[in-house]
From TrEMBL, chain A:
GO terms for molecular function: hydrolase activity. This is Putative TIM-barrel fold metal-dependent hydrolase. It comes from the Bacteria. Keywords: Hydrolase.
From TrEMBL, chain B:
SUPFAM superfamilies: Metallo-dependent hydrolases. Signal peptide: none annotated. GO terms for molecular function: carboxy-lyase activity; hydrolase activity. The keyword Lyase applies. Residues 3-238 form the Amidohydrolase-related domain. It comes from the Bacteria. InterPro entries: ACMSD, Amidohydro-rel, Metal_Hydrolase. It comes from Nonomuraea dietziae. This is Amidohydrolase-related domain-containing protein. GO terms for cellular component: cytoplasm. The keyword Cell membrane does not apply.
Length: 240, 242
């Protein structure tokens, strides 16, 4: 045991559903290989029972083969990756995935070089809302809230940084379907400021350290039942 | 026991209410001592913030202070250093390159670092990306200066490894609001462990961020002890034993 032992602080907290997990690798950076077995092992080491998993192969190269890899993984909640560089193909893929029972799709605007104002984003947002799909989206929440507004969309903003917490709060007040990942809400009072039913634990395993949001949640000022909700209850309500 | 070499006192302009340092938070993470700069000094008015911090330090036993230097206000900085360093509660200098519009390569930053070197205390300098390499060069060009690369380059931690290996008067401090996988382990593997420190950026960032990232690295007991407090005690000359 060292001065940096987190186990005692985390206690018995377990995550029942992590909303931000990826398989596959980024070709443009060093990093973990992201093969499914190693990703699932990292989740297990961090007391994360189930991940909502999306494919980087789908996001970066080929939608169908990447998403089919995720659909074949046992014991995960599959999330369909879309490619905003191809809104026509993405809508086609959404319809295919919805027919197979997938409940959520994921957007990668930063990786795909897509801005919030591009027509593709609004097009995909409308179709996802019409299909009743939950959208997990990267990107700056100050911009990416807009294409989802007024659609009664269910959205989880995966990149909400505590610097932009005020922007999330004001748009979420008008949009009951807007939620945020906890991953970057690591100021001393961000988790305690967002309504607990809008918070979902997200780690971005294996590219980020899942221990950090886990520790922040475990030591938060939330009530035990709120922690349970953030650690997976809210995600289950959205993703099944 | 942990010494937090990168902490703050005072309010922030974001949507947050954390002006008061929370001793319970320090206790939770085993942080015995924090070295803080005044947010007012860092963001807006160095002299006013240093003066306020001087008053507050008289009310606490678990904090030391940084005299914040704005490289664009070196005459004020010299007066502040003369006034506060001899008191013993200020043990270093904080310089934020962005808030003062003073990149590490700027002439005024170089002058500020020379001023700090003349006082014999370490300087905590904000670094981001490849600017940590510029800081290493500036330290090498400034005789006697000892500097801490705040955030150890943040997303540029690989540059921080290179910087620390090139300059034996540069220390690294890890706080960052993101936690890329393996960041701490990669730095520990590449740098002399005697030049690694621990910092949180509290009260802007909860200590869970830096603590969790370091915990995830699975350090050996010896390296953990150096990072937790031994290196800081030696660098700042603190009168602390575990």
């Amino acid at each position: 045991m060292t001065a940096f032992d987190a186990r005692g602080l985390i206690g018995e907290l377990t995550v029942t559903l992590d909303v931000d997990v990826l398989v596959g690798a980024y070709a443009d950076r060093d990093g973990p290989p992201g093969d499914p077995s190693s990703v699932l092992a990292v989740l297990g080491e961090n007391r994360i029972g189930v991940g909502a998993v999306a494919s980087l192969r789908a996001a970066l190269f080929d939608l169908r083969s990447g998403n089919d890899e995720v659909l074949a993984l046992p014991g995960v909640v599959p999330v369909g990756a879309l490619d905003l560089r191809d809104p026509i193909g993405s809508v086609r893929e959404m319809e295919r995935l919805a027919a197979r029972g997938v409940r959520a799709v994921r957007l990668f605007p930063d990786e795909q070089g897509v801005e919030a104002g591009f027509p593709s984003v609004r097009h995909v947002a409308r179709r996802a809302a019409a299909l009743g799909l939950v959208v997990l989206t990267g990107g700056d929440v100050r911009r990416f809230w807009q294409p989802f507004s007024g659609l009664e969309a269910k959205v989880v903003f995966l990149d909400t940084h505590f610097y932009h917490l005020g922007d999330f709060l004001v748009v979420a007040a008008d949009e009951p379907g807007f939620h945020t990942s906890t991953r970057l809400l690591n100021s001393p009072d961000a988790l305690e400021t967002v309504p607990a039913d809008r918070l979902l634990y997200g780690s971005r395993t294996p590219h980020y350290e899942p221990l950090v949001p886990l520790l922040r949640l475990a030591t938060s000022g939330l009530k035990p039942e709120e922690i349970t909700a953030v650690a997976g209850g809210n995600a289950r309500r959205l993703l099944g | 026991m942990i010494v937090d070499v990168h902490a703050h006192w005072g309010p922030w302009f974001f949507t947050m209410d954390v002006a008061e340092l929370n001793l319970a938070t320090m206790d939770r993470y085993g942080i015995g001592v924090s070295i803080v700069s005044a947010t007012e000094a860092v963001i807006y008015d160095a002299s006013a913030g240093n003066r306020a911090l001087d008053g507050w330090l008289a009310t606490t036993e678990r904090h030391y202070g940084y005299v914040t230097v704005n490289p664009r206000r070196l005459a004020e900085a010299e007066r502040d250093l003369d006034e506060y360093l001899p008191k013993g509660r200020f043990v270093g200098v904080k310089i934020h390159t962005d808030y003062t519009g003073s990149p590490v390569t700027s002439p005024q930053l170089r002058e500020a670092l020379a001023l700090v070197a003349s006082r014999g205390v370490p300087a905590l300098v904000h670094t981001w990306g490849a600017s940590v390499l510029d800081l290493a060069q500036a330290v090498m060009d400034t005789p006697g200066l000892r500097a801490i690369a705040g955030h150890m380059g943040a997303d540029g931690h690989r540059y921080a490894v290179e910087a620390a290996r090139s300059c034996d008067r540069l220390w690294l401090e890890p706080c960052y609001s993101h936690a890329p996988a393996g960041r701490i382990a990669q730095v520990v593997a590449g740098v002399d462990p005697e030049r690694l420190l621990f910092g949180t950026d509290s009260t802007l960032i909860d200590p869970a961020s830096a603590f969790g990232a370091v915990a995830a690295a699975g350090l050996s007991p010896g390296v953990a002890e150096l990072i937790a407090w031994r290196n800081a005690v030696q660098l700042f000359g603190l009168d602390i034993t575990a």
